[in-house]
Amino acid sequence: MENFGYLLAAFSMAWALVFGYVLLLLNRQKRLQQEINSLKEVLKEKAS
Amino acid sequence: MKRNIQLWLSLVLMLVALYLVFVYVPTEKEMGIVQRIFYLMVPTAWLALLSFLVVFIGSTLYLVKRGLKWDILAHSSAEVGIVFTTLALIVGSLWAKPIWGVWWTWEEPRLTSTLVLWFIYFAYFMVRSFASEEFRGARFAAVVGIIGFVDIPIIALATTLWRGIHPPPLIFQGGLAPSMLLTVLVSVAAFTALYFLLLFQVISMKNDVTEVRKLKELRG
């Protein structure tokens, strides 16, 4: 199949970029949530 | 719950799109199998433009109403938009090489104006990063978001206004066979669903950043 390599490269790059970005977002979300939970714990201790 | 619905919708649409692209739609006679890149190229290019439209709307409303939520909307859409614009440029090159014989040509107005859009997105982030204060960075970025919008109609009309090697508009001009039209429309729908899923996720995270800031102020 002529030029199949270009088709494969295009779809592979697309999915790699999208999944890479999604993983980045999930990682950022996880760190933010941990930071929020930790700050809430500190404020709870301060209040008590 | 709403995020789950968005996630499942994106997933189902994407799977249907993949089936249509690789199984249903017949191979185009002139370009052969590589023509299927069209079903990836159109959605990514569409999202590059849609994202910046949202940046423009958010930026305008931020400058007019000053609400932080509008800046968050613009900033979030810019983040997702630069990903899809990058993808559109890469995918475009991978299609250009076998069809036009070159990875890139500066003489093609649509390609050049899309690259300009990528730099506008980049400038949007740069002015935010280099501003001395956050609210100042948001205002400068909003100005970039509004002025940069002038590139969107240039990209959209490039193949109509100027003669280049990029094909003229086909989709709504009856230039596609019904099976190809269905495939490209489903692909666009699938990627648009993905865009909104990512956009709302990024907005949610930027709201979390605001919450972290508030909690740090309370902590002292």
Measured by DSSP, the beta-strand proportion of chain A falls in under 5%
Average pLDDT metric of chain B: 91
Number of DSSP helices of chain A?
Answer: 1
Strand content of chain B: under 5%
What structural class is derived from the secondary structure elements of chain A?
A: mainly alpha
**Assembly state:** heterodimer
Q: What's the N-to-C terminus distance of chain A?
A: 71 Å
Number of domains of chain B: 1
Helix content of chain B: over 70%
Chain pair forming the biggest interface? A-B, 27 and 30 residues
Instruction: Summarize the biggest pleated sheet of chain B.
Output: none
What does this molecule look like?
The complex is a heterodimer of chains A (about 50) and B (about 220). Chain A is mostly helical. The mean pLDDT of chain A is about 90. Chain A is built from one helix and no strands. The longest helix of chain A is centred in the middle third of the chain and has 44 residues, at about 5-45. Helix content of chain B is about 80%, strand content about 0%. Chain B is globular, with a radius of gyration of 19 Å. By secondary structure, chain B is mainly alpha-helical. In chain B, helix 3 runs antiparallel to helix 4 (about 110-130). Chain B has seven helices and no strands. Chain B has one domain. The interface of A and B includes residues 14, 33 and 40 of A.
Features:
heterodimer, A: 48 residues, mainly alpha, 92% helix, B: 220 residues, 7 helices
Secondary structure layout:
The complex is a heterodimer of chains A (48) and B (220).
Chain A: H1 4-47
Chain B: H1 2-24, H2 38-65, H3 68-100, H4 109-130, H5 134-147, H6 151-161, H7 178-219
Summarize the structure.
Chain A has 48 residues and is an all-alpha fold. In chain A, 92% of the residues lie in helices and 0% in strands.
